[in-house]
Write a structure and sequence with these properties.
With 268 residues, the protein is α/β, with parallel strands linked by helices. It has twelve helices and ten strands.
């Protein structure tokens, strides 16, 4: 479904250019849940933004190949790329308050992709939004529909972002550090919700985190990035229990104890 080959992302600087991502390759098949883990500055979020077409191509040099269902995304114009954003490809970010409009009610924000990509009548849009909110684990959807972001907890705002990303049933959901700002209990609940979405809807998930424990709780396969390069990749349990690289070993050793996050378990 998604094939990334030899992706390079570079920024011009006085000394020439800085390579944020160097020769990154990854294949994501339908229904897979793959994690990208690395410290801040490893290039993981930059890779996600490249897939979504969110990088400013005038100031950022992007080369290599990103193919989605056979279409080379790097060859598309900005307007052509918009036909994929929020429809076949969706992304959720770390801090929902920077993504949600504080002056707009929740319902219209969840419906946004429907307004952009379809001619669905308002009543049908609302029903679709309520279904997406239920799928994202939001109770009392009818009540939440008319509330504003500031009236919700951090965990519920993140679920609103998940609902907005799911409203058009994308084929790939990119989750860029979506649980980092949440406490461990809410984090575990959000991970459970993403597992259910993958299981019920078959939506592939590319999950980005600095915490290998979070990746382990959700993903089947993991890619470890350091300074723009893949240093290790494989089955998540194999990498977690038998890391081959010193960098991966440090990531495992440095992660905080998260008793609620157990691979394959139920987190309540």
């Amino acid at each position: 479904m998604l094939q990334i080959e030899h992706l390079k992302i570079a920024f011009p600087n006085p000394k020439g250019h800085f390579e944020a991502v160097k020769d990154f390759s990854l294949h994501v098949e339908e229904g897979q849940v793959i994690g990208i883990v690395g410290e801040s500055g490893s290039g993981k979020s930059m890779t996600a933004h490249a897939i979504m077409g969110l990088l400013d191509r005038k100031s950022v040099q992007v080369s290599g190949s990103i193919r989605f269902e056979g279409v080379e995304l790097l060859d598309l114009t900005r307007s052509q790329m918009r036909s994929y954003q929020g429809k076949d490809l969706s992304i959720i970010f770390q801090e929902p308050m920077t993504s949600l409009n504080p002056t707009m009610k929740i319902g219209p924000q969840v419906e946004e992709a429907l307004r952009i990509h379809t001619k669905m009548p308002p009543k049908e849009r609302k029903q679709r939004a309520l279904k997406a909110m239920a799928l994202a684990g939001l109770p009392n959807g009818e009540q939440l529909y008319h509330q504003y972001p500031h009236q919700l907890s951090g965990g519920m705002r993140q679920r609103v972002m998940i609902a907005a990303a799911l409203v058009l049933r994308p084929k790939l959901l990119i989750a860029d550090e979506p649980t980092t700002a949440l406490d461990v209990t809410i984090q575990a609940q959000i991970l459970d919700t993403l597992k259910e979405i993958n299981r019920k809807e078959g939506i592939a998930i590319l999950f980005i985190s600095h915490d290998l424990g979070v990746i382990r709780a959700l993903c089947h396969h993991v890619v470890v990035m350091q300074q723009g390069e893949i240093v290790e990749a494989g089955d998540v349990e194999q990498v977690f229990h038998h890391p081959q690289q010193a960098y991966t070993q440090r990531l495992i050793a440095s992660r905080p104890t998260r008793t609620k996050l157990k691979a394959g378990g139920s987190h309540g």
